[in-house]
Amino acid sequence: MRTLKLTVAYDGTAYAGWQVQVDRTTVQGTIEAAVEQITGMKTRIMASGRTDAGVHALGQVVVFQSETRLAPEVLRRALNGLLPDDIAVLDVADVAEGFHPTRHAKRKRYRYVIHNGPVRDVFARRYCWHYPSGHLDEKAMQRAAEALLGTHDFSSFETSGAEREHSVRTIFDLRVERGAGEDRDRLTVEVEADGFLYNMVRTIVGTLVDVGRGFRPESWPAEVLRALDRRAAGKTAPPQGLFLVKVDYAAASSGPPGHLS
Question: For the chain, which domains are there?
């Protein structure tokens, strides 16, 4: 039995999230159906994390076991020949038995895109949060974000609904940047951590937007962090602006597991 790792990109617009649901079209269910058609075996696949409805991925990691003898490149081509145009398998690789896409993940990086312009972009509406209500001060947002770097209890940035052993996570990188020239209305918030709580990135974005708009002081995110109460934070940003960018693993598939997310 082989353990196969897929790196997958998808547009989450048409899907009810990653996880299989009864009578709903999901990314997981769509990939599983393609794998079954190619290998002739019903297979349950695991992902590095479950994305919500409307959320996208540039580098989701998926693992499953199979007795197929197809070479990785052949399997990649076969899957892409069956999958719809909004899902693409970027890479297929054999990994060691026991490799777990969630537990062995060391870092994950997410990107959130905000269109901060007066008129909506009809061609980008599925891939950003259109925020037309005044200019966002990205420098103030960046200064406010500094308080969230490091290891903290992020209970204030977690939406209830997912069971976790604890809410402590480590954020390694958090940056807010505005594009230049024709992209000056585009803001990106990128977050890299050892794991994420349910809606953690979207709540961080919603909180920083309140700072960028001037509704809250730059010191506010630090106060939210200390409150350990979701009601203290800003709104949850809408899903369509969120992208799972990449998942990083240790050189070997063994070793101490990272946080679940």
Answer: 2-95 (3.30.70.580), 106-249 (3.30.70.660)
